[in-house]
Amino acid sequence: MTKVVYILIFIISFGFYKADAQTELLRKEIEQIIANKKADVGVAIYGIESGDTLSINNETHFPLQSIFKFHIALAVLDLVDKGDFLLMQEIQIGKNELLPNTWSPIRDKYPNGVKMSIGEIIKYTVAQSDNNGCDILLRLIGGPEVVNEYVHNLGIKDFSIQFNEEEMHKEWNVQFANWTTPKAANDLLLLFYSNNIISKASFDFLWKTMIETSTGKKRIKGKLPEGTMVAHKTGTSGTNEEGVTAAINDIGIVILPNGEHIAISVFVANSKENEEVNEMIIADITKLTWDYFINQPNLTP
Hints:
This protein is of the alpha+beta class. The protein has a single domain (about 5-295), classed as Beta-lactamase. The chain has eleven helices and ten strands. It has helices at about 5-15, 20-35, 70-80, 105-110, 120-125, 130-140, 145-155, 165-170, 180-195, 200-210, 275-295; strands spanning about 40-45, 55, 60-65, 90-95, 115, 160, 180, 230-235, 245-255, 260-270. A hairpin with a 5-residue loop joins strand 9 (about 245-255) and strand 10. Helix 1 runs antiparallel to helix 9 (about 180-195). The protein is globular, with a radius of gyration of 18 Å. The protein starts with a helix and ends in a 7-residue tail after the last helix.
């Protein structure tokens, strides 16, 4: 393990982050946004180069939904780096694996099954949030417990995956067993960006895939300047008969005009707001964060 990763794990374990009066002002502005919302909102922000950080409601376990596809992709790529699989290795996907009544661009394009490389399955799973692709990857590597072990061994403990997408679709409460804290999600982004937990080739592949994510355009990217580069992963639940949406999430790394980076994770859970409001919460928090970092004395737009 490299020196950089040891330092990052030390930061994650002990929370030695920079905090000042300006950061607290950003916290208050974010708290004003969420104060009157009928939802539980969790936030973690980290300026990768500056060290500025804050978290809100980090004691809460937020349902991951499809955010966990980022964790799964990392676990698969770790096994690729170890030689257990090849990114170009083709997997036969049977028609019986392409379940109906779930979000699946793979199934829509190949309803009778297809032979597809592991790399392509990861692209569908992360960039387009394909649920069938997700479960195919989980079966390939041995299930959620493999992802749990991988992430926990990185020093990130406030996280759990117990069920796959098929199982989450069967019963409403199951989704809450797949959870994270906002800071744990941000910590994984930070470790990923360090470019040390997976090979450079795997990092470049996943980074490009996350940049190409097509879901959640009104979330982290919603109010940022046109063309801003964001490597991110979204998560979205359904809404139950009581009008509660379990999860509208987005986590990612935003590139600032001066080339520096912000890791940001926003989770909106148990919401009685509509989809537009839920996504707006994430967009508004991200825009406040963007403005905070842009206006720092050491940054030049």
